[in-house]
Amino acid sequence: MLYRAFANVVTGTPLIVILNDARKLILMVLDSLKLLSKDVLDKDIMYSLLLVLSGILTDKNGQEAVIENAHIIINCLIGFATYPHTMLVRETTIQCLVAMSQLPHARIYPMRIQVLQAVSKALDDPKRAVRQEAVRCRQAWSEI
């Protein structure tokens, strides 16, 4: 219940405000995602949180905030690459993994094999948009 409330507040907050406190919020966002993924009814909130995470990952200041927790974020995202309840969560998760490939090499290289294995499962997804993102992600992570 508390995580739903947190998720609703964060998703309603402008991204500029979130970016100012991204270092503090990133772990709470990940915890919320993990807990919300257990209930099918929370798929829309989960998608909204992933959009916030995607916004953080695509911003230069946000990338600086996630560098120290890159392995935690990647492990979390790997679990959502095959989320069964909605295509939007899988697609956004893979887009976040593509954004993570832009982080410094030393931080993300140890996770390369796990990401490529998770993305290879997404290549067989029934939805075309997910497969296209999986191809982009595989290419981005193969070049590392």
UniProtKB/TrEMBL annotation:
It is found in: Nucleus. Keywords: DNA damage, DNA repair, Nucleus. The keyword Heme does not apply. The keyword DNA repair applies. InterPro entries: ARM-like, ARM-type_fold, MMS19. Coiled coil: none annotated. Key component of the cytosolic iron-sulfur protein assembly (CIA) complex, a multiprotein complex that mediates the incorporation of iron-sulfur cluster into apoproteins specifically involved in DNA metabolism and genomic integrity. In the CIA complex, MMS19 acts as an adapter between early-acting CIA components and a subset of cellular target iron-sulfur proteins. Belongs to the MET18/MMS19 family. This is MMS19 nucleotide excision repair protein. The lineage of its organism: Eukaryota, Viridiplantae, Streptophyta, Embryophyta, Tracheophyta.
